[in-house]
Design goal:
This protein has 463 residues and is an alpha/beta fold. The protein has 3 domains: 147 residues, HUPs (Rossmann fold); 83 residues, Serine Threonine Protein Phosphatase 5, Tetratricopeptide repeat (Alpha Horseshoe), CATH 1.25.40.80; 147 residues, DNA Cyclobutane Dipyrimidine Photolyase, subunit A, domain 3 (Orthogonal Bundle). Helix content is 48%, strand content 7%. It is built from 20 helices and 6 strands. Strand 5, helix 4 and strand 6 form a beta-alpha-beta unit. Helix 16 packs parallel to helix 20. The longest helix has 24 residues. Keywords: DNA damage, DNA repair, DNA-binding, FAD, Flavoprotein, Lyase.
């Protein structure tokens, strides 16, 4: 049950500070108390030093708010953090939620820490945080990867062209990283540390109301945050929907989705924990397992590879391969029979009935099935004045309404609409040789049944 060495990076190689009050863990990406290698490493280090563990979290709002995050995202996150605080308290670990940027909170509290443990994320803002902490901390700093199966640099040291180039590299390594992680014993309770300045997260709804946030896009009832809810959903999926996943995953009306993406985005469940559960499932066959692990490991970690190796992964000019931008530029002046404003798209006021249904699911419940996400994005490209405008609008809508928006998968999937990780196809109007998707793709599933399911979900939101 050791934490694999490839998950651990020493950012400041100094001996633990003597006379310290605690070992500090800045929890930002891995927002969970279970199956969290960064937390367990902090517990191990504290045990060897005879110190308690303090877990802190920097809560951004107002002018310092996380880019594009709104009340929908914060409500889900705070529900998870409320569960984290209670679970840590039961283990004798202190939790301190403070307003401020993660570097501000961590650097302040690290002055009394023997060492500082960080988890890891690959978005530009996260990497900026970690660099600031590494530069400013006056103590030992260790970073632990807990939110991919195979650490990004271990899987590949370069930007991969497509899933087909990364898949064999991951397949060679993921067995060694798909291992259980047991909670370590806490050697010294954190009770009595006398910490001040923390926010009470025991009532997430109450805390949400005092934060300065964009409230136009509000919380949803369809998903509740936290590791406990993620585990419940995973168990229910394996029991009721996993058998036949390989064949049914591309049918939105089939109910074959596990809905793990919001929980993975906020680090509320470990991909390793999910992978182990899939492997151990007593239902389903090899095709079901292979299909799910392809999505969980290959596709998801291809996205991590993309954002890690791409400066400007959120911009049209830098996120796409040269061939895609070239062919789209060649067809930028092609007539577009339909053009819609961002507002019309957000409200689902287009001529395409089932596109509007999918937009309604996204807008009102924070989720859309992957099969429809691609159709949704391709149509925005088709209905936008220029490819660059379409890219920007697609990304803004994605990040605004999806609970799992603002994620490496989000940036990568939007870029996929415009040719990333793909190859040239037959040339046609507007798209050039970028893959096209027509309304015929809706014939691959029962669109009317999907529409009825969306109506039920949206009705539940209004109750």
């Amino acid at each position: 049950m050791a934490i694999q060495s490839a998950r651990i990076r020493v950012l400041r190689d100094e001996p633990p500070r003597e006379g310290a009050d605690y070992v500090l863990y800045l929890m930002q990406q891995s927002q969970r108390a279970a199956f969290n290698p960064a937390l367990e490493l902090a517990v191990e280090e504290a045990g060897s030093l005879g110190l308690p563990v303090l877990v802190c979290f920097g809560l951004l709002d107002g002018a310092n708010g996380f880019p594009e995050a709104n009340a929908r995202h914060y409500a889900f996150m705070l529900e998870g953090l409320s569960e984290v605080a209670a679970a840590l308290e039961r283990r004798g670990i202190a939790f301190l939620l403070r307003r401020g940027t993660p570097p501000e909170v961590a650097l302040d509290l690290s002055q009394r820490a023997a060492l500082l443990v960080l988890d890891r994320g690959y978005l530009t803002i996260q990497r900026r945080w970690y660099a600031e902490i590494e530069k400013g901390a006056g103590c030992r700093v260790v970073q632990v990867e807990g939110d991919v199966v195979v650490p990004v640099e271990t899987a590949s040291t370069k930007h991969e062209y497509a899933a087909r180039t990364l898949r064999p590299k991951l397949n060679k390594r993921f067995d060694e990283f798909l291992e259980a992680l047991k909670p370590r014993k806490v050697a010294k309770s954190a009770e009595g540390l006398g910490l001040k300045g923390g926010l009470d997260v025991s009532d997430p709804e109450k805390l949400l109301k005092i934060l300065t946030l964009d409230t136009v896009v509000g919380p949803v009832k369809r998903f509740r945050g936290g590791h406990g809810e993620a585990s419940r959903r995973l168990k229910e999926f394996l029991k009721a929907a996993f058998e036949g996943y390989g064949a049914g995953r591309n049918k939105p009306e089939a109910g074959a989705a596990s809905h793990m993406s919001p929980y993975l985005h906020f680090g509320q469940i470990s991909p390793v924990e999910i992978g182990l559960a899939i492997r151990a499932a007593k239902v389903g066959d090899a095709d079901d397992r292979s299909a799910y692990l392809e999505e969980l490991i290959v596709r998801r970690e291809l996205a991590m590879n993309h954002v890690f190796h791409t400066d400007g992964y959120d911009r049209y000019e830098t996120a796409l391969p040269d061939w895609a931008r070239k062919t789209l530029a060649e067809h930028a002046d092609d007539p577009r029979p339909h053009l819609y404003s961002e507002e019309a798209l957000a409200e689902g006021k287009t001529h395409d009935h089932y596109w509007n249904v999918a937009m309604r699911e996204m807008r009102e419940t924070g989720y859309m099935h992957n099969q429809l996400r691609m159709y949704w994005g391709k149509k925005i490209l088709e209905w936008s004045p220029t490819p660059a405008e379409g890219f920007a609008v697609t990304l803004r809508l994605n990040n605004r309404y999806f609970l799992d928006g603002r994620d490496a998968n989000s940036f990568t999937n939007v870029a996929w609409v415009y040719g990333l990780h793909d190859r040239p196809w037959q040339t046609r109007k507007i798209f050039g040789s970028v893959r096209y998707q027509s309304g015929n793709s809706l014939k691959k599933f029962d669109a009317k049944a999907y529409e009825r399911a969306v109506a039920r979900l949206c009705e539940a939101e209004r109750r």
